[in-house]
């Protein structure tokens, strides 16, 4: 029991990061919309290149953003508190945006499944992905000992979270269309996700 408790304490600091990554990659956006539409039109197997490319693209974007910002924070330690504040404000802004969002736009017409490179390019050219990486790096820099470690941590976390969440959206494309028929149902879901995201900010400010 003691061993399990110690192990749980080891992973406790990264729980807010995991929550942030899951919600940030799972809420309606370009990648989720394309994955959902692709799943509805082509099925899960033919949508794998799109989802894999998108997850890989987000992993590289967040990793690159984290490495650059982590280097700056290490060079000027006094910036850590300010950057943590900026990151928290970004998460609050994102939570508000999520809470006010309506249903995703599934009116996407594709003649053929999107390729791996196209899926990655969606993330490389999406300012939201870079802003997400910078916001996460500013908020979770204390979880790593250096730029490389932070880049690896954020890249792997966001990449895995994106792979899981995009798979869920793809698989649930037609199911969600049947279950969530009204705008208020989508809004209720987004409000819940927004509240969970906002709550994930609190543990960041606990402890040293």
Protein topology:
Elements: H1 2-11, H2 15-26, H3 30-42, H4 44-75, H5 79-100, H6 116-124, H7 127-140, H8 147-171, H9 173-179, H10 183-199
Helix pairs in contact: 2-8, 2-10, 3-4, 3-8, 4-6, 4-7, 4-8, 5-7, 5-10
Task: Outline the structure in words.
38% of the residues are buried. Helices cover 77% and strands 0% of the residues. Helix 2 packs across helix 8, helix 4 packs parallel to helix 6 and helix 4 packs antiparallel against helix 8. It is built from 10 helices and no strands. The model has no long low-confidence stretch (mean pLDDT 78). The radius of gyration is 18 Å and the shape is globular. The chain has one domain. The protein has 208 residues and is mostly helical.
What is the count of DSSP helices, taking H or I runs of 4+ residues? 10
* Strand residues, percent: under 5%
Radius of gyration: 18 Å
The count of strands amounts to 0
Q: Please indicate the count of domains.
A: 1
Largest sheet: none
Uncertain spans, ≥5 residues at pLDDT below 50? none
Short key terms for the protein model shown above:
10 helices; globular; 208 residues; 77% helix
Quick description:
With 208 residues, this protein is mostly helical.
């Amino acid at each position: 029991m003691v061993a399990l408790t110690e192990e749980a304490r080891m992973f406790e600091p990264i729980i807010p990061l995991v929550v942030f990554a899951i919600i940030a990659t799972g809420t309606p956006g370009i990648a989720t919309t394309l994955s959902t539409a692709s799943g509805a039109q082509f099925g899960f197997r033919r949508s794998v290149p799109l989802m894999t490319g998108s997850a890989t693209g987000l992993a590289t974007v967040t990793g690159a953003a984290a490495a650059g910002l982590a280097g700056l924070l290490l060079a000027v330690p006094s910036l850590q508190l300010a950057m943590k504040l900026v990151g928290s404000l970004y998460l609050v802004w994102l939570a508000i945006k999520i809470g006010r969002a309506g249903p995703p736009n599934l009116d996407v017409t594709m003649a053929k499944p999107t390729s791996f490179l196209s899926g990655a390019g969606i993330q490389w050219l999406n300012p939201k992905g870079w802003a997400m990486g910078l916001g996460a790096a500013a908020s979770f820099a204390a979880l790593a000992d250096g730029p490389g470690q932070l880049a690896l941590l954020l890249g792997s976390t966001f990449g895995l979270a994106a792979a899981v969440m995009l798979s869920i959206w793809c698989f649930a494309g037609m199911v969600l269309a049947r279950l969530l028929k009204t705008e208020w149902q989508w809004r209720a879901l987004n409000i819940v996700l927004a509240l969970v995201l906002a709550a994930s900010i609190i543990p960041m400010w606990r402890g040293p």
